[in-house]
Design goal:
Largest sheet: 7 strands, mixed
Order of helices and strands: HEEHEEEEHEEEEE
Strand content: 35-45%
Shape: globular
Number of strands: 11
Number of helices: 3
Distance between the termini: 80 Å
Structural class: alpha+beta
Radius of gyration: 22 Å
């Protein structure tokens, strides 16, 4: 009986060691590209509507819609006539960027920006670091295809021109 218990302990210990050795690292958190608006006035961008759709459905299967008003828009200047607009109340535009197709509608201009075909590139941590992110390697944004080889060493941005 003692020998059986000792064997069981050895088997459990070996299984534990093998499991911990073969454990794969998780994917790094996803980071969407910055969306930069060029030539837009504050009045034209003080309200916009984000519509999220099931991916690859030609915008016919909506998931949700959110109206973003000035109080919830972080305006971050990028250049003299460029600004990044980030809704502080809708993180899905960043976290789920690659999972869906998107419409961003500006009622003051009757202008819609379409986002499709986002292809994620998942990376895994080699060492513990805050600089590990998965990113979009390709996306069709406002009728222009953007390709990225990294989120870090290139301008990881997409642009909307008025």
């Amino acid at each position: 009986m003692v020998r059986l218990g000792a064997k069981l302990i050895i088997v459990v210990a070996i299984a534990f060691v093998l499991q911990s050795c073969s454990k794969t690292k998780e994917d790094c958190s996803f980071l969407a590209p910055d969306i930069v608006y060029v030539g837009f006035t504050q009045a034209e961008t003080d309200t916009f509507i984000i519509r999220r759709f099931e991916k690859n459905t030609n915008f016919i299967k909506p998931i949700d819609t959110l109206k973003v008003t000035r109080a919830h828009i972080d305006r971050i200047p990028v250049g003299e006539d460029s600004v990044k607009l980030a809704p502080d109340n809708y993180p899905k535009l960043s976290t789920d960027f690659y999972l869906n197709d998107w419409e961003i509608y500006f009622p003051a201009m009757d202008r819609t920006v379409y986002v499709t075909n986002a292809v994620p590139q998942f990376t895994q941590e080699k060492e513990a670091s805050a600089l590990c992110h998965s990113y979009v390697s390709s996306v069709n944004f406002d009728n222009r295809v953007y390709q990225f080889s990294s989120w870090f060493d290139t301008p990881y941005r997409v642009y909307v021109t008025k």
